[in-house]
UniProtKB/TrEMBL annotation:
PROSITE patterns per the UniProt record, alphabetical: YJEF_C_3
Gene: nnrD
Name of the protein in question: ADP-dependent (S)-NAD(P)H-hydrate dehydratase
Keyword Lyase recorded: yes
SUBUNIT field: Homotetramer.
Organism expressing this protein natively: Agromyces aureus
Lineage, highest ranks first: Bacteria, Bacillati, Actinomycetota, Actinomycetes, Micrococcales
Keyword tags: ATP-binding, Lyase, NAD, NADP, Nucleotide-binding
Family stated for the protein in its record: Belongs to the NnrD/CARKD family.
Example of a GO biological process term: nicotinamide nucleotide metabolic process
The enzyme's E.C. designation: 4.2.1.136
Residues binding (6S)-NADPHX: A44, G94, H140, D212
């Protein structure tokens, strides 16, 4: 039977925001750890960290090269650098998978051994299947083609672009993880058959760094739902779709604030609190 792709909307997203209560502290809300950025791509770390903070999370821990740590702290001094306990990981943004040092590989393996939910992006996509924690991968079409080729599943960028729904579903089945396949239309699905589709509300999103922002947002949503994810791993699919919805809406607003003009990735992160606030207001709790 053909998969039914359900459109993910504002009211769906509103149900997946964890707002803090009187009994909460930064640790109970959830800590997101990031292993991201590199000397080549320091900006990806800054963007992911900024986006995580703006989505709402108890604490953000960043692990990466010294110079990148400095850039992250300059932008967001709220961030804690170095290892420690976390409730979810975002791994790989701004990392070239062909240039991973032993230190970096150690950090990645250490993170994967934690057993907490993981978002695998860019330079960590190939680590899918090396651990058992609830996992979501966030490739674009070219990255998915490369990932599948490495698993001896023949596909090409053109084939995936022509039928992203089919390939997202196949990847979820073959890899056993949640797949968030990025593009003007984003498909989010899991091996259990949950399948959500989202049309981007603005094509200004097609600019460098917007995927790094999405990764940080999804990491924050996973960290703040750590208790739910511990008893219901399928929640990761809904959280991934929610991240895509908020990301698109934040981009639309950032562009609208400039008369429908272009945006940069950081504009999206900065528009996120307004989107989250409005989603919460529609919930009325
Ligand atoms: N500010 C930053 O630090 C940014 C870092 N980024 C990071 O960059 C890494 C690579 O991501 P991509 O999405 O570019 O990976 P792709 O798989 O799309 O591209 C890989 C490489 O192919 C080359 N390439 C592909 N298409 C090209 C074209 N049309 N013209 C010229 N060169 C082309 C580029 O050298 C690129 O680095 C990721 O780790 C990502 O997180 C990007 O997100 C962009 C912003
Ligand atoms: N033409 C487009 N229209 C709307 N959204 C797009 C378009 N192309 C890409 N996007 C979105 O922009 C983001 C790009 O992410 P990604 O490819 O990882 O970029 P980067 O690596 O530069 O961060 C994704 O959220 C994707 O869904």
């Amino acid at each position: 039977m053909a998969t039914e792709w359900r459109s993910w909307r504002a009211d769906d997203a509103a149900a997946w925001i964890a707002a803090p209560g009187a009994d909460d502290d930064k640790y109970s809300r959830g800590v997101l750890g990031l292993v991201s950025g590199s000397v080549e791509f320091p900006g990806a770390a800054v963007l992911g960290v900024e986006a995580a903070h703006r989505t709402g999370v108890g604490l953000v821990r960043y692990i990466g090269p010294r110079g990148v740590r400095a850039a992250v702290l300059l932008r967001r001094p709220e961030t804690v650098v170095g290892r420690g306990r976390v409730q979810a990981w975002l791994l790989g943004s701004g990392i070239d998978p062909t240039r991973r040092s032993f230190v970096l590989l150690g950090d990645l393996q250490h993170a994967l051994a934690d057993g907490v939910p993981v978002v695998l992006d860019a330079g960590a996509l190939d680590l899918v299947g090396t651990h058992t924690a609830p996992t979501v991968i966030t490739p674009h079409h070219r990255e998915l083609a490369r990932l599948l080729a490495a698993r001896e599943i023949r596909s090409s960028f053109e084939e995936i672009r022509a039928d992203p729904a089919e390939w997202a579903e196949r990847a979820a089945r073959e890899l056993g993880v949640v797949v968030l396949l990025k593009g003007a239309t984003t498909h989010v699905c899991d091996p259990a058959g949950n399948a959500f589709v989202l049309e981007a509300p603005t094509h200004w999103l097609a600019t460098g760094g917007t995927g790094d922002v999405l990764g940080g947002m999804l990491g924050a949503l996973a960290a703040t739902h750590h208790a739910r994810l511990a008893r219901d791993a399928e929640a990761l699919t809904s959280l991934a779709a929610t991240a895509v919805w908020i990301h698109g809406e934040a981009a639309r607003r950032a562009s609208a604030a400039n008369g429908g003009g272009p945006i940069v990735a950081l504009d999206i992160a900065q528009a996120v609190p307004g989107v989250v606030g409005e989603l919460l207001a529609t919930r009325g709790d």
